[in-house]
Design a protein that fits this description.
The complex is a heterodimer. In chain A, the strands form 5 sheets. In chain A, strands 5, 6, 7, 14, 15, 16, 17, 18 and 19 form a 9-stranded mixed beta sheet that branches. In chain A, strands 9-2-1-13-21-20 form a 6-stranded mixed beta sheet, with helices on both faces. In chain A, strands 3-8-4 form a 3-stranded antiparallel beta sheet. Chain A has 16 helices and 23 strands. Chain A is α+β, with helices and mostly antiparallel strands. Chain A is globular, with a radius of gyration of 23 Å. By secondary structure, chain B is an alpha/beta fold. Chain B folds into 2 domains: 196 residues, 3-Layer(bba) Sandwich (FAD/NAD(P)-binding domain), CATH 3.50.50; 145 residues, Rossmann fold, CATH 3.40.50. Chain B contains 8 helices and 18 strands. Chain B is elongated. Chain B starts with a strand and ends with a helix. The chains are: A alpha+beta, B alpha/beta. Chains A and B meet through helix 7, helix 14, helix 15 and helix 16 of A and helix 3 and strand 13 of B.
Chain lengths: 531, 373
């Protein structure tokens, strides 16, 4: 068989694309995923890392609330190593209408979300960082999820089942015969190599960029690009997700994740052509800090690590200027029935939390088109890394008394660590001290996870995400990458690009400790290292 | 406690000023938080285009040998930068192609020495490179320890003869050997001994901070200062000052609490943002001890260059001074308060930047103080 022929081609390397690829692979399809940049570069990697209970949408968007809670429960089982079951609080502050609490709890109940009104005193005991002025609290099953890990695990799992991935490969056009899509023209953005791939079905899972891709295929999908700005704090001040118990608004969710916490978001409609280069303005920083401190006053004293923004792939359906009222529900379009274009499916809308359900719906359509009769098993089959045991158990199987660094690496990789070759002392050296990433984990990412740059490495290992923002680890990792790829010249340029990318998220919050760190980084890289 | 001069900051600028004043018979104290820019010193004196006798004599007195050979130095990432005055163990070359063949020796598992970048950088200059690994001392082969520069330098200083033996076995026809700059911390003679015993040109290439030549320089200068009778208060922090008219009367520190440091003169050598000589919040930049005038942009959007590689405006911010380096408050000079080193930012471009700024401004302020009786 021609190596360019597949059963299905999936466009987009976000969590929905990766999930769809895995689902297709599990149903026995020969799947190819094509991604223009790297995994989780769009909204999949630019969000709170919140596994919604659905409570946030219960009042205004009951359909997505119900989708969220179902998936929330499934992902705790199948993606355990990507999820931290923190639970969440919806707090009412003195300026909030406490009667909204009843509306909220009732809506949660209807959607099937366990929401329990608790005493504000109890809330303070459960979550000591919460604003002590709170007048009401509701406990819900929110959780924290590492979206990079989730995306990478789906991709690795699918690859082990025979699916193929082409990263840094852009779709330049569709191969069309009459009213049928037969495949795609692609170009590797690094090498310039052009290849055509063929499949009877192509799935558009490109998020907000899905509109351009659909247009290229000759159909219309109206996206409503909505920018959300977020701030990462250098410490984890809270252990539970903290939300405001009111209609969804700006900067009213604080999510703990790993060693940090993230406040967000804003919601601003932006032109589609600006989706590639979203940045955070000083006004947005001020808003996020001010509103965030209402959830947890400690935030006003906590160092901000960086600012970033993502673009929600909302699907346009009215003229709501904020996008807050557009449903977060799943949109799965079979363009054959909708537009008369055969072999083309768009999966969009939805949320990080509902990615698996989105993948299932898209794969169902693909299977129907291909005449494959095999049920979806992703709701019950754990992802690679989540096979049954806790990361502590896995770490103890390998190391008698695992260090915090060994535990951290095992937490990131999950049960897959026990299948890796034995590590030497040199392999245990730390590349990144902030996130405790050892050499062997970096090498694993090089060997198995399709890393070609430091930014790719960051998404898979957290190298450079910590308090030093790459000041020390970027150089070390670059040294390893230069050796692994045997190309120091390209790596030198990559290092500069990586530091530039870190700086883009640092300067909007460049004061106090962050400015100290930035000045040090400038001296080290320019004057000492000679970059 | 009363001194002739109290110096806030124990980095290069503060120590050069302190040693000069002690040599001139003045009694001084240095208040140091413990960290300063010498800890990431490249070993070459930034913006020193000359080698003033006054400086080389001061360094020689401290046991620090420098050399002046305008040319280029090798950076840790394998590029070359112009350099003139440097510590003796920093090699300066008239041109980047300093050898035909180089042996680059790495320490296995040590991630802060960038052999792949060095090799690529040297090859680009037409220097053929070969990489080799040095055996680790036994105590580093087992157990979970982080290999960082200071720890390795201690072992190299102790076991330098073993390094020489290994290199002698590894070297073939190379005319240069590139070693990580991990020696001369405890025993300052080691860099020179390695050069004498290894049968090729030995070039030390820098590592990630902390910088071994930087820490060595800091230690030797501090020792010299103390031998001359200076009082170096390590791990203390200046909090605020008592002012009388246009003069500073005393400075209160964290550790000395009620016993304020009184002096006839005060020198602010507290460094830039990193050293906390300058502080910032979203709205302003200020100098925390004396509350003196600071030159900065009111609009925070103007503080940054969006490009990492570009010049960063905030790094130019610094305290305002008159011609004699007196600090200003509300535009009025404080008669007995001087600023030296990085706390000046780029407000005095004629004095240079980095190490050059530290040294020139220190001598200038010392001369002003010595004019007084």
């Amino acid at each position: 068989m021609d190596p360019r022929e597949f059963d299905v081609i999936i466009l987009g390397g976000g969590v929905v694309g990766a999930g769809t690829m895995r689902d297709c692979a599990m149903r026995g399809l020969r799947a190819l995923l094509i991604e223009r940049a790297d995994i989780a570069t769009g909204a999949s990697g630019r969000n709170h890392g919140l596994l919604h209970s659905g409570a946030r949408y219960a009042v205004n968007d009951p359909e997505s609330a119900a989708e969220c809670i179902v998936e929330n429960q499934i992902l705790r089982r199948i993606a355990a190593h990507c999820i931290e079951p923190t639970d969440g609080l919806f707090i009412s502050l003195p300026e909030d209408d406490l009667s909204y609490q009843n509306t909220f709890v009732e809506a949660c109940r209807k959607a099937g979300i366990g929401a329990e009104i608790i005493d504000p005193q109890l809330a303070r005991q459960l979550e000591p960082s919460v604003n002590p002025d709170l007048i009401g609290a509701v406990r819900v099953p929110d959780a924290s999820v590492d979206p990079f890990r989730l995306c990478a695990s789906n991709m690795l799992d699918a690859k082990l089942r025979g699916a193929q991935v082409r990263l840094r490969t852009a779709v330049t056009g569709f191969i069309r015969e009459g009213d049928t899509i037969r495949g795609v023209h692609t170009r590797n953005v690094q090498t310039g190599r052009e290849v055509d791939y063929y499949a009877p079905v192509v799935v558009n899972a490109c998020g907000v960029w899905g509109q351009e891709i659909a247009q290229m295929a000759g159909v219309q999908v109206g996206m409503y690009p909505s920018k959300g700005a977020l701030l990462i704090f250098a410490h984890r001040v809270n252990n539970m997700v903290i939300n405001r118990c009111r209609k969804p608004s700006n900067a009213d969710i604080l999510v703990p994740g790993d060693t940090v916490c993230i406040i967000g978001t804003t919601s601003t409609r932006i032109p589609l052509e600006n989706c590639h280069k979203v940045s955070v303005t000083p006004d947005e920083v001020t808003l996020l800090v001010t509103e965030g401190a209402k959830l947890s006053p400690a935030l006003s004293e906590t160092r901000i690590l960086r600012a970033f923004a993502g673009v929600r792939p909302l699907v346009s359906d009215d003229n709501d200027p904020t996008g807050r009222n557009i449903s977060r529900g799943i949109v799965c379009l079979d363009h054959e029935t909708r537009d008369g274009l055969k072999g083309f499916v768009t999966i969009t809308g939805g949320k990080l939390t509902t990615y698996r359900q989105m993948a299932e719906q898209a794969t169902d359509v693909v299977c129907r088109k291909l005449g494959v009769d095999k049920a979806c098993e992703t709701a019950t089959t754990p992802l690679i890394g989540s096979a049954g045991r806790s990361y502590e158990e896995v770490a103890r199987e390998i190391w008698e008394a695992p260090s915090t660094a060994q535990k951290a690496a095992t937490a990131r990789l999950g049960s897959v660590v026990s299948e890796m070759p034995k590590r030497s002392r040199q392999d245990e050296e730390l590349v990144c001290e902030c996130e405790e990433v050892p050499v062997w984990e970096v090498n694993n990412a090089f060997e198995r996870m399709g890393v070609s740059s430091l930014t790719d490495l960051r998404r898979r290992t957290r190298v450079g995400m910590g308090t030093c923002q790459g000041e020390f680890c970027a150089c070390r990792a670059a040294g390893l990458l230069a050796k692994a790829q045997d190309c120091a010249e390209r790596e030198r340029a990559d290092l500069l690009k990586f530091m530039g990318e870190r700086w883009k998220g640092n300067y909007p919050i460049g004061w106090g400790e962050s400015l100290r760190e930035a000045e040090y980084t400038q001296w080290v890289y320019k004057h000492v290292l000679g970059l | 406690m009363r001194f002739d001069t109290v110096i806030i900051g124990g980095g290069l600028a503060g120590l050069v000023a302190g040693i000069s004043l002690q040599q001139a018979g003045r009694s001084t104290a240095i208040v140091s938080t413990g960290q300063n820019a010498l800890h990431f010193f490249s070993g070459s004196f930034e913006s020193m285009k000359e080698a003033p006798e006054r400086l080389t004599a001061l360094f020689a007195g401290a046991g620090i040998r420098v050399h002046y050979n305008p040319g280029v130095r090798l950076t840790p990432l394998g590029t070359f930068r112009e350099a003139e005055l440097s510590l003796e163990d920093i090699s300066l070359f008239p041109e980047a192609k300093f050898a035909d063949k180089a042996l680059i020796a790495c320490v296995p598992g040590y991630l802060d020495f960038f052999s792949a970048f060095l090799a690529e950088g040297l090859e680009k200059q037409g220097i053929q490179c070969r990489l080799c690994s040095l055996d680790l001392p036994e105590e580093l082969q087992e157990g979970s320890v982080e290999l960082r520069s200071v720890q390795l330098a201690r072992l190299v200083d102790r076991d330098w003869k073993k390094i020489v033996q290994q290199i002698r076995l590894l070297i073939k026809d190379e005319d240069a050997v590139v070693l990580p700059q991990l020696c001369g911390l405890e025993d300052t003679s080691v860099p020179e001994r390695l050069r004498q015993e290894i049968p090729a040109r030995v070039v030390f290439a820098g590592t990630m901070p902390p910088s071994i030549p930087g820490i060595r320089t800091q230690r030797l200068l501090k020792r010299r200062y103390e031998v001359l009778g200076g009082t170096y208060l390590t791990g203390d922090e200046a909090l605020d000052a008592q002012v009388e008219g246009n003069k500073i009367r005393s400075v209160r520190t964290h550790n000395l609490d009620a016993h304020a440091l009184e002096a006839s003169h005060f020198i602010l050598a507290s460094g830039g943002f990193f050293s906390k000589g300058l502080r910032s919040n979203p709205f302003r930049v200020w100098e925390p001890v004396f509350g003196v005038d600071v030159d900065f942009d009111e609009d925070r959007n103007a503080w940054y260059n969006e490009e990492f590689a570009g010049d960063q405006p905030y790094m130019k911010y610094g305290v305002k001074t008159d011609a004699a380096l007196h600090l200003l408050v509300g535009g009025q000079p404080r008669e007995n308060l001087y600023a030296i080193g990085s706390v000046l930012g780029a407000t005095r471009p004629e004095l240079g930047s980095g190490a050059g700024l530290a040294i020139r401004s220190a001598f200038l302020a010392v001369d002003e103080i010595l004019k007084t009786v």
